[in-house]
Amino acid sequence: MSDLRLAHICRHPIKSVGFEEIARAALTPGRALPFDRAWAVAHEAADFGDQPQGWEPKLKFLRGWAEGALMAIRAQFDDATQTVTLSHPARPDLIARLPDEGDAVVEWLRPLWPERRPAPRRLVARADGGALTDVPDPWISILSLTSNRILGQRLGQELSIHRWRANLWVEGLAPWEEFDLIGREIEIGGARLKITQRITRCRATCANPRTGQLDADTLGTLEDGYGHQDFGVYAEVIAGGQIAVGDTVRPC
C-alpha cells in the first residue's frame, strides 16, 4: 500500500442535484467536505418545518434513487458568491444564488421529477450548519479508482466516477484494498482522517451521470461478484488541513 495519490475531489452543493470536481479543499475536524450537501430539496412528504434543525434521513429529499434523471445534473458552485449553475441534457442552464433563489431551483427540478412521487417543495439547509449527507455522522467518502475499473470490467463498460457521488478518489490501491483501511488513519496533504466503515450502495449508482438513464446493474454485479453491495468507505476528519488533487495519501 504505497504510492497512493489523491486523484479527484468531488462535491455536491445540493444533495442529489449535481456534481462537480474541485482542485482543493480545507478539511475541518468533525465536519463534512465544505459545501458538500450543504442544501437539499425537501419534498411535500417531508415531516419537518421550513428547515430541518439537524440531520434528516435521505428519504425526505429528492434523490437519484427515486429518479435517475437527477444523476445527469452537473453543478458549478462559486464559494464566494454562493451561486450555483445547474445543467442537464433536458433542461436549460440555471444560475441561482443560494439560498435566496431556492424557489428557482425547485421549479427548475420539477420537470425532472416524476409526478407519482411527492412533489419538490423547498430548498433547505440544516439549522445547525451541518451537511445533509446520507448518514448522520459528518463523514467524507473515499473511493478507489482501481476498484471502479475492476467493477467496470465485470460489467463490460467504463464506469464514470460520478455514479458514486463520492468525495475523494484515491489512485494506487489494489482492488478493494480500501476495505483493509477500516479502523486505520490516513494523511492527505495537511489533514488526517480515520476510516470508519464501508458504504452500502443504492439504485442511484445504476444511472449514467451523462444521460440519467439506468444502464448498469452495479448492485447486481457487486452482489454476484463479491457477495455484498458495498463500494467505498467513509472517513472522519480528525485533524484539519488543506488537501489538493495530486497530494500523496499516506496510511498511518
Query: Which stretches are low in confidence, meaning pLDDT under 50 for 5 or more residues running?
Result: none
CA distance, first residue to last residue = 11 Å
CATH topology (level 3) name of the largest domain: M1 Pyruvate Kinase, Domain 3
Q: Summarize the main sheet.
A: 7 strands, mixed, barrel
Strand order of the largest sheet: 1-10-9-13-12-11-15
| CA-based gyration radius | 18 Å
**CATH level 1 name of the largest domain:** Mainly Beta
Q: How many β strands by DSSP?
A: 15
Beta-sheet strand percentage? 25-35%
Number of helices: 3
What sequence of helices (H) and strands (E) makes up the elements?
A: EEEEEEEHEEHEEEHEEE
CATH superfamily of the largest domain: PK beta-barrel domain-like
Residues in helix, %: 10-25%
**CATH architectural name of the largest domain:** Beta Barrel
Number of domains: 2
Label the overall shape: globular
Write out key terms for the chains shown.
single chain; 252 residues; mainly beta; M1 Pyruvate Kinase, Domain 3; 2 domains; seven-stranded mixed barrel; three-stranded antiparallel beta sheet; 15 strands; 11% helix; globular
Report what the structure shows.
The chain is mainly β and 252 residues long. The chain has two domains: 4-31 and 135-251, PK beta-barrel domain-like (M1 Pyruvate Kinase, Domain 3, Beta Barrel); 40-124, no CATH class. The chain has helices at residues 102-109, 145-155, 218-226; strands at 4-11, 20-22, 24-27, 40-43, 74-78, 83-88, 91-97, 120-124, 140-144, 168-171, 185-188, 191-200, 230-239, 241-244, 248-251. It has a seven-stranded mixed β-barrel. The chain has a three-stranded antiparallel beta sheet with strand order 5-6-7, with helices on one face. Strands 3-14 form a two-stranded antiparallel ribbon. The longest helix has 11 residues, at 145-155. The chain is globular, with a radius of gyration of 18 Å. The model has no long low-confidence stretch (mean pLDDT 97).
